[in-house]
Amino acid sequence: MRKLIDKLSNAHTLTAEEYRSLLLCEDAVTNSYLQEKAQQTTITRFGRNVFIRGLIEISNRCRNNCLYCGIRKSNTMVSRYALSRETILACCREGYALGFRTFVLQGGEDLSQTDDWVEETVRSIRREFPDCAITLSLGEKTKEAYQRFFDVGANRYLLRHETFNETHYRVLHPSEMSRNHRLQCLEWLKEIGYQTGTGIMVGSPGQTIDHLVEDLLFIERFRPEMIGIGPFIPHADTPFANEPAGSIDMTLKLLSIFRLMHPSALIPSTTALASLSPDGREQGILAGANVVMPNLSPSSVREKYSLYNNKAAFGSEAAEGLKELEKQLERIGYTISYLRGDYNYV
Ligand code: 5AD
Fold first, then answer.
1. What is the three-state SS of 72-84?
2. 343 located within any domain
3. Residues 266-291: what's their mean pLDDT?
4. Which atom in ligand 1 lies closest to the alpha carbon of residue 68?
5. Is the pLDDT of residue 127 over 80?
6. Residue 36 alpha carbon to ligand 1 centre in Å
């Protein structure tokens, strides 16, 4: 098993069978070897620095009905909101003063925030913050829309594929949605020139080890600049309310594998990880993550953007909690980097 880990570390690729046996391996010594290798690889590329991104949750309205997601269209318990352009700009100003140089605009697929509106919003942020990176995470759009957002200054786009396996995709999504269309969107984003992020939920209902192997092979081929990976966490007002949460250990293991597969990738230690365990975020960093995304949304809307229950959004998860985050990272020997942190192939 050590040989496999060394192979992944040196050649950045494994066969499906090899990935499978690595995922199935429960030997503690092997798993900590994998984690150490991933941590070393991260430190060699980035030092003990963690990039920060200010996350602005711009709308919790969504036209989709993904079975796992708390803001799915048919959840009538949600109090819906959409931020105005001025509010978003105010969040950016606050973030800029705190030291953020990347703003991530994330939201449901809200048709009231039209392509024109998004374009104008990106343009305004670009005008006021020429030195900042703008990341969008607004779901599936037309190729033309992606192009327009890029042309006015968006640099990065996050769109998790959630699961590569088509049958499994259909377990998680309503029939109007399609895995192929999601992959098509990812191809467009890359073609246009975005630093593109994709990723998965770990332990979502119906997910098998073989599905995860397909995800690994897809991410190996696709070479995303960013990889988002977090455990599935049930939300009480969704059809998956009674499903168990995903495993932290499996999430960390996949994170380490992704680090060895793509040493230069930007990999966040996700909010879902921090929400499941008090030291989840630190564990993610120690497994090879190099990004955290504190919440910059107005505090009045934070609990409305509830993708899953008990989502961490305050304390060190909040942009105002940077000092606390700094201390948490210090305790494990890391520092916040206030650089923009674009993807750089080394
Ligand atoms: N548990 C964990 N992650 C979730 N997401 C959505 N719903 C859940 C949930 N119940 C993730 C999806 C999406 C990202 C924004 O949040 O992977 O891409």
1. CCCCCCCCCCECC
2. no
3. 96
4. 10
5. yes
6. 27
The answer, yes or no, to whether residue 51 has pLDDT greater than 70, is yes
Is 70 exceeded by the pLDDT of residue 287?
A: yes
CATH number of the domain where residue 269 is located: 3.20.20.70
Expressed as residue numbers, the domain containing 217 is: 2-7+29-337
Q: Are 194 and 156 in contact (CB under 8 A)?
A: yes
Residue 157 lies in a domain: yes
Q: What is the mean pLDDT of residues 31-35?
A: 97
Secondary element (H or E) of residue 111: none
Specify the pLDDT at position 341.
95
**pLDDT value at 98 more than 80:** yes
Give the chain's domain count: 1
Testing ligand 1's pocket by substitution, the residue of 71, 219, 307, 310 carrying the most ligand atoms inside 8 A of its CB is 307
Q: In what order do the strands lie in the sheet with 195-202?
A: 54-59, 102-107, 133-137, 156-158, 195-202, 226-231
Q: Closest ligand 1 atom, CA of 137?
A: 15
Ligand 1 atom nearest to 158, measured from its CA: 18
Mutate to test the pocket of ligand 1, among 308, 309, 310, 311 (most ligand atoms within 8 A of CB): 308
Kindly report, residue by residue over 153-170, the tens digit of the pLDDT.
Answer: 999 999 999 999 999 999
**Do the domain assignments include residue 20?**
no
- Of all protein residues, the one whose alpha carbon is nearest to atom 13 of ligand 1 is 160
The residues lining ligand 1, judged by C-beta closer than 6 Å to any ligand atom, are 68-69, 160, 162, 201, 230, 232-233, 235, 272, 307-308
Q: Is 23 within the bounds of a domain?
A: no
Alpha-carbon span 297 to 313, nearest angstrom? 9
Contacts 24+ apart (CB under 8 A), 21-25: 22/253, 22/257, 23/209, 23/212, 23/213, 23/250, 23/253, 23/254, 24/209, 25/1
The minimum-distance atom of ligand 1 relative to the CA of 308 is 10
